[in-house]
Amino acid sequence: MSKPISVRKTLTINRPVAELYRFWHNFEALPHFMKHLKEVKVYDDKRSHWITSGPLDSTIEWDAEIIEDRDNELIAWRSVAGADVDHSGVVRFRPTPNDRGTEVNVVTEYNPPAGAIGDAIAKLFGESPDQQLGDDLRRFKMLMETGEIATTEGQPKGHS
Amino acid sequence: MKAVCWEGTNKVQVETVPDPKIINPRDAIVKITSTAICGSDLHLYDGYNPTMKPGDILGHEFMGEIVELGSAFKNGNVHNNGKSLAVGDRVVVPFTISCGSCFFCNRDLWSLCDNSNPNAWMAEQMMGHSPSGLFGYSHLTGGYAGGQAEYARVPFADVGLFKIPNGLSDDQVLFFTDIFPTGYMAAENCDIQSGDTVAIWGCGPVGQFAIRSAFMLGAGRVIAIDRVPERLQMAKDGGAEVLNYEEIEVGEALSEMTGGLGPDSVMDAVGMEAHGMGLEGFYDKAKQAVRLETDRPNVLRQAIVACRKGGTVSVPGVYTGFVDKMPMGAFMNKGLTMKTGQTHVHRYLQTLLDHVQNGNIDPSFVITHRLPLEQAPHGYEIFKHKKDNCIKIVLKPGQTV
User: Fold this and answer.
1) Which of 3.30.530.20, 2.30.130.40, 3.40.50.300, 3.40.50.1980 would CATH assign to domain A5-146?
2) d(CA B258, CA B351)
3) Contact across the interface for A147 and B19, Cβ inside 8 Å
């Protein structure tokens, strides 16, 4: 039996609330900074389809819906009833009191089902879900603050 | 291209590796004309950084010519402090990688940039927070390929690259990349009041620049401490009084030379591989060997005890992990202040260029060896063992053996 995985992270991003809220609200842009998310297709104001990469080139897919949306404040979503993956998340945006930009707080939760998909998800998120969310949020910050995501992928190295 | 790769403890090798290419929009590719070996490279060579991987390209003191710019430059989205960058520009590359738009860059704290270390999580696990990415300096600070090579990719080139005016040689400006600003910031961190006495442990290249910077910032006396004769001589040439710690008890000598008061500020320009004397040195070496202690803080201990009450301790020397037996009682009861950090290189570039152009200093004084890039392995050996009076090596890519 897999246990629910719940993680939360907060990071301060040196950009205005409205800009961050707007970028995140376009779910189709999330794969830019969420490493395991391959694609999000938005159906309408509420519903979207999420595809993540799983182990061994597999993919895991589910439908999600926005369950709460407050302008420039928060966006909450969860997988629809009956989806293979029981996932929910909420991102909150709050201006810092001292003009340092925006505090972004993310909480995500997965309830992996029993069986193969459950195992795959547990594997995908189980090793260090905390670090994965932290890295995703850091990439969001890099993208918003600098327009790109720092990386060394593709640089030269020696043979040994 | 040819590049100097770290292969393991005490082993570097010049390998043929793929040329770097533009990866991000704000990248530049620089064709390297001069690149130096830094004392901090020896910490990697000596195997004190556990996040090095075989094949990593070393080097963080390099300069050259821009041969390619990323897409952001074509769109005109980026500005180099109001100056545009173009292919063909001659530039120096700060060893710290900084985005220019985060909380820290906005406050002139460039080496603390939030956005340039893709492996920030590693540093966060050890230190709580991550410093900026660095060139050629282990995966803890990003794993960026370094500049002991024919070419290098420079991220956030619009923020980092510093154009060099005509009429200055590579030798005069190469050290803007690290050791000159590092020595200068270390002296600034001493909070020097006019006429102050500053004691500096370590007469390597950073110590040498710190001596000269301390005078530029108003010090009346600089006392420099080392054991290598040619380094002590170079310190003397820079105006310092010198102490050889193998011949003299440094604490007593400093007290004697300052009328019992102690130096107004003290500087540890040695860092984590300090050579301890006697039982204390043995204790640290033994603990470090079994990894109970990662860094040997002999100099830091001595400096804290020697410093006058209410004085300042400046630490440009590199530490990566933990030290033992810090004389915290002395530090607290004497009301000392400690200032440290990787260098905020970008903050000092214009100031140092002005000093060079005004003739206040010619940074090339520190160079003792110029070698073709292919001879880097030999360079590391003589630098590590201080053979052949080696103090500073400049490698020249493209030069034949």
Assistant:
1) 3.30.530.20
2) 31
3) no
